[in-house]
Amino acid sequence: MEQNDTHWADTSALAPPPWLHPHSSTLPATGAWTPGDPLGQRQFMKMAVDRPFVLEGGGQLHDVTIAFETWGTLAPDASNAVLVCHALTGDSHASGPAGAGHPTPGWWDDLIGPGRPLDTERWFVVCANVLGGCQGSSGPASPHPDHLGRYGPDFPVVTMRDIVRTQARLADALGVDRWHAVIGGSMGGMQALEWGVMYPERVARLVAVASCTAASAQQIAWWSTGRRAIALDPKWRNGRYYDAPPGEGPHAGLALARMVSQVTFRSDDVFTDRFGREPVESLAGRLELWQRFEVERYLDHHGAKLSRRFDANSYLLLTKAMDLHDLARGRGGLRAALKRITAPVLSMGITSDILYPEYQQRELVTDVIAAGGSATFHEIDSPHGHDAFLIDHQQVAAALIPFLEKPRT
Amino acid sequence: MEQNDTHWADTSALAPPPWLHPHSSTLPATGAWTPGDPLGQRQFMKMAVDRPFVLEGGGQLHDVTIAFETWGTLAPDASNAVLVCHALTGDSHASGPAGAGHPTPGWWDDLIGPGRPLDTERWFVVCANVLGGCQGSSGPASPHPDHLGRYGPDFPVVTMRDIVRTQARLADALGVDRWHAVIGGSMGGMQALEWGVMYPERVARLVAVASCTAASAQQIAWWSTGRRAIALDPKWRNGRYYDAPPGEGPHAGLALARMVSQVTFRSDDVFTDRFGREPVESLAGRLELWQRFEVERYLDHHGAKLSRRFDANSYLLLTKAMDLHDLARGRGGLRAALKRITAPVLSMGITSDILYPEYQQRELVTDVIAAGGSATFHEIDSPHGHDAFLIDHQQVAAALIPFLEKPRT
Lengths: 409, 409
Prior knowledge:
The structure is a homodimer. By secondary structure, chain A is α/β, with parallel strands linked by helices. Chain A has a domain at 216-324: Rna Polymerase Sigma Factor, Chain: A (Orthogonal Bundle). In chain A, 33% of the residues lie in helices and 12% in strands. Chain A is built from 12 helices and 12 strands. Chain A has an 8-stranded mixed β-sheet, sandwiched between helices. Chain A has a two-stranded antiparallel ribbon with strand order 2-3. In chain A, strand 11 (345-350), helix 10 (358-370) and strand 12 form a beta-alpha-beta unit. In chain A, helix 4 (217-232) runs antiparallel to helix 8 (312-324) and helix 5 crosses helix 7. The longest helix of chain A has 16 residues, at 217-232. Chain A is globular, with a radius of gyration of 22 Å.
């Protein structure tokens, strides 16, 4: 082999270009927010733990911090509080510009703010980074309380129920007995539904967009390929990469996981309209294996971008939490679980969503009603696929706002 | 990090199980058929090359071998010859049992054989391993003519047109002036369509199942994630892995590429019906990151299975060939290309196909007719997704057989 390497290396048609293994230069091993980084708009709730926080999966945490942001002012009777729950790679920064401490602008910036649909002159809006995340809440990239390193692979498996329990503690700390509404899209919708089942008396309205009552086999299949992509990256080092020098983190694996999910987040139509078969390099000359079409450059861009601001271990944990999402688990079935929900449910589905197909959002409505509850369906008619809940704000707002205004009967 | 590794390794919740990096034992570095392996039913055509075989992409081959199989007897007037073209991970073994030299049973075994729909007592059926493949035809795993090693990454980019040109040479060698039909599904359908455009006088009927006139952006996106999975595997070694010891080939990368494509080959419905949320290990005990649901075990199984019988560099080359597939390229547009087709076209689409959606097969019919040709559409109503062309033989046969019988007008 060595002989061939020497002889043929320069003429190789299959030899990969540098972008195949991105960020080999100065990038920290994790994109996680780390104590000492700019706080940005973050606030922190350090959970009082006189005893360990025992997770649904059996793990224990001796130290739990939740990073969150708020917009607006809590009314004296605490009646105007709205909890917004973020999706897989979101964080507490639901509104506001990018800047120090916030690598991205608010993921629902068009929806949340003064004079915006979710008007923060009226509502007190809260968004918390999920447990297991990487933007300030306790997660694999957090300092381990018992030694100088990070948790890394010793961070236990978390579930939506664990995440919601920390959010309930946050509600306590904020003085919110009952949310006017809990709202979320995708993984955020899973949290919203768990809120309704776990704390029916603490939530007056539920909004789930492009979500599900339980992960389907296909959803598990997609997320599991992402986990295997990270594990395939030798720089993942079984999850112990935090002390690796710059450029030596599992960026390529995380990027590949993102690339796969990015395809599921969009749609055939949008890819055709936006990229078609446009090549980056002309196809008129010599054809090479690693030449790209524009759609590949787009995927590479999104993969690289996520790996700069996310943590590979958090990606593993949170995709697993989504796969484990099942309102029915341990509750005597789905109907029994849904019977606990007292809040009216607004379920929104996206016509072109290939990851959380619209039928799941329609089934949620049918199932809630079958369990004796109240639910309505709103269709987001969009070509943008799953990501429409982050793009088609006006359609989201058109259903969300009247739902928030409607008095509970 | 070293300290943590020592201290925490045994308690790690994220630590990966052995199946994450499969085949670390005795598996050859490539699953390719290699000279010296049992021939099975293979025959070989060594192309007479008095000058180099120049590929569409500009590469040159000084030595081209095509492995093929035949069933039935060629009629004296050579009028009963049918060419069947295989899909990405297929090979010349379209019919017959698995056995020495053939890791899998014929991929259309239920369709091809004596008394079967494509009756080999009547038809002379031919299937050739594609150029760039790994089951006997020249490809990256083939011995390089100029040195003792294999081509590896020095094998040039191939296109559908190159593949079809070698098949035309095979037709010459077999004494077939004109195929009664050229038939293929998925990548095989791309070849069939190229046959119609490149050699209109040499093909009397064309059948394309679950294929396309040009790869869409979404298709390119899917295949490109597979290529990146292989490149991410450190054992891929930039394509020079053939001399690696057993267990040191890029099996994990190839397996991951297959896992992603396996999801696109099937459907949400079938995954739900077959796997649902069934876990491999009970979810009642402690939850661990690398516990699997049955659908994950299924994907792992298919990934591992392919990596035992395929070659990672062939996977790179052939997925690139599919991405480059575009009947219109260099021909003044799609209509001009389709105008060259004189054979009637039978286009079959699968209702649940998420990879090559049915609308593409319907568009093919519209486009051929718009170009002045003759085309008919047949719908395969199946929940099995793209793979239905390999599963729902009766539906394929129901349209295929009358089409073959119909005299050309």
